[in-house]
Amino acid sequence: QVQLVESGGGLVQAGGSLRLSCAASGNIFSINTMAWYRQAPGKQRELVATITSSGITNHANSVKGRFTISRDNAKNTVYLQMNSLKPEDTAVYYCNVVAKSPGIPITTRNYWGQGTQVTVSS
């Protein structure tokens, strides 16, 4: 009912930048919290950043000052601007969206993007 499509991943050198995008589409009534997670090989998935419907953001300490989450409500899109990338940022990045869809009954669900690979070389 709701689909998330991620883009923007790739291979960069340490100190470089990438901008990830995640666009939501489908039968959407409203979108609440949007977030980015990441998972490196052999490690658990971790929360990177969140942004509420009112624009309040929160970033993990490991990325604070380097990454910035933002959203464009008109496009149902969430972004993650990543600067000063480090090799330890290498991971698959997933967007997550809490969305409400009209229907009988109206439903609120949590949706995940397909993941996009970010690789930072030293």
Terminus-to-terminus distance: 41 Å
- Binned, the helix content reads under 10%
Q: Percent of residues in beta strands?
A: over 45%
Helix-strand topology string: EEEEEEEEEEE
The count of DSSP E runs of length 2 or more, i.e. the number of strands, is 11
* Structural class by sheet pairing and helices: mainly beta
Radius of gyration equals: 15 Å
Low-confidence stretches are none
The dominant shape is: elongated
Major sheet size, sense and barrel closure: 7 strands, mixed
Number of helices: 0
Mean pLDDT: 95
Structure description:
- This protein is mainly β.
- The chain is 0% helix and 60% strand.
- The chain has no helices and eleven strands.
- Strands 2, 4, 5, 6, 9, 10 and 11 form a seven-stranded mixed sheet that branches. It has a four-stranded antiparallel sheet with strand order 1-3-8-7, with no helix packed on it.
- β4 and β5 (46-51) form a beta hairpin.
- 30% of the residues are buried.
